[in-house]
Amino acid sequence: MANLVQKYIDIAKEKNANEPEFLQTVEEVLTSIEPVLEAHPEYIEAGLIERLIEPERGIMFRVPWVDDNGKVQVNRGYRFEFNSALGPYKGGLRFAPNVYPGILKFLGFEQIFKNSLTGLPIGGGKGGSDFDPNGKSDGEIMRFCQSFITELYRHIGPNTDVPAGDLGVGGREIGYMMGQYKRITNQYDGTWTGKGTSNGGLAGRTEATGYGIVFYAREMLKHFGEELKGKTVAISGFGNVSWGTAKKLTELGAKVITISGPDGYILDEEGVSGEKIDYLLELRGSGKNICSPYAEKFPGSKFFAGKKPWEVKADLYIPCATQNEIHMEDAQTMVANGCKFLCEGANMPTTNEAIAYLQENGVVVGPSKAANAGGVACSCLEMSQNAEHIIFSEEDVYRQLEGIMVNIFKLSVDACERYNLGDNLIAGANIAGFERVAEAMMMQGIV
Ligand code: GLU
Question: Is the Cβ atom of 240 under 6 angstroms away from ligand 1?
Fold first, then answer.
């Protein structure tokens, strides 16, 4: 059977040679679903894996816009509609200079299993652009978003493909894109999630990803006989996800001691709490993409230029910045510092090599597909709010979110038990996510 999985990995390598991020997730997922394939030869017969690793559709387009100096700029726009077995394609848009098909395909592929784990009717997709929002004026952001949607609008819709935010895309960008979409289509519908609350958005959506991560981390610790209260936590990033994570961790009695940005990390032994948490949003909103001003504003905290927070000793690590921020040498430092728990907040923050090392050394790793699924789960609540023309209350959203996260953890542990995987929560989540998609794909024939 190992040969069979290797065959699929080789097919993926041959077809996507210059896309290491996509190949990384394909390898991780396929390796862990091997026992399911062994139990279901009919999946192999149906070419299910060959179909699963190929996006249903990929769209690439030109995005021309005029900057504040009157100069014409041209970016590339993309949408990878990966899998619609469980529902309309669902996933965010990422605007960042390093965006290219390999990154969006890794995110779109992961989104299939993440969305499946939520138990909700959503397929997987992802899109974005190599546009860099840092340092751009509000007018430039608006003109870019309008141009982006002037092409993408024809490919999306409430029952077709429902985009949301991701890195570089928040409520403001979603608002501009939704406005232009509405203008072109004359439809005020649930095509967008992550909208502002005065714009049809869901109460609590901004916090949802971070809160969900903490609910997952709480379940993970509980499962191993520990609790969040009194724990020190090292997190990375200083955006939306880190903000929501820090807020909920503090509320549940844990102490957040680090945040990070591309310029380095902040160590705040007194804890990133109270007004300091909201300062993260101010930092992010400054458009400078640096976290060093935190140390000037809050004396007592220290800034370490060019370093990552993984060198700090903590009870729990939650990477919330971006993909591949924990490499082998970081994993080695963490293990040497006695690390027991890692809960992935960002999508695929740990390299496969680092995961293997952490797991071999007894570290429990909660995978991002499961831990950060609260964001997209709440996006689905936003879709249903829009479809029903009602408004959910914040309490209602948090209650549903908590239930979904507890269930995701249970599903993963259950898959670990069924397939004798011990504490391998990564394999458990991959299997539980895969099973639902595979069953639906089988019912829909060879499409
Ligand atoms: N970008 C988020 C994620 O990685 C949210 C996607 C969505 O809400 O559709 O899951």
Answer: no
